[in-house]
Write a structure and sequence with these properties.
2 domains, extended
Length: about 90
């Protein structure tokens, strides 16, 4: 079997990463749905999820890198990337 080109390997890794992100988002969505069924406010769960995520990012990447990720998320939120409805 011929060896995969570097471009093909990168494309395959990108696909796996995208599939993993999609699966992770599904898990998070299910957690939000279960919490709502238990009467936990979405805003409370969202804040707790952000705090838990930041703890994981700090543990994996360190404080400085986690802070950069948070800044990029803040910029993306301000740009409307996470808005459910379109901005007017």
């Amino acid at each position: 079997m011929p060896a995969m080109s570097i471009a093909m390997q990168i494309a395959l890794e990108d696909r796996r990463d995208e599939d993993a992100r999609r699966a992770a988002l599904t898990y998070v969505g299910e957690a939000f749905a279960l919490a709502a069924l238990d009467g936990i406010g979405v805003d409370d769960l969202a804040e707790a999820a952000l705090c838990a995520a930041m703890c994981e990012l700090v543990a994996i990447h360190g404080e400085d890198s986690a802070a950069l990720i948070a800044r990029r998320l803040a910029d993306r939120a301000a740009a409307g990337e996470f808005s459910v409805s379109r901005r007017q």
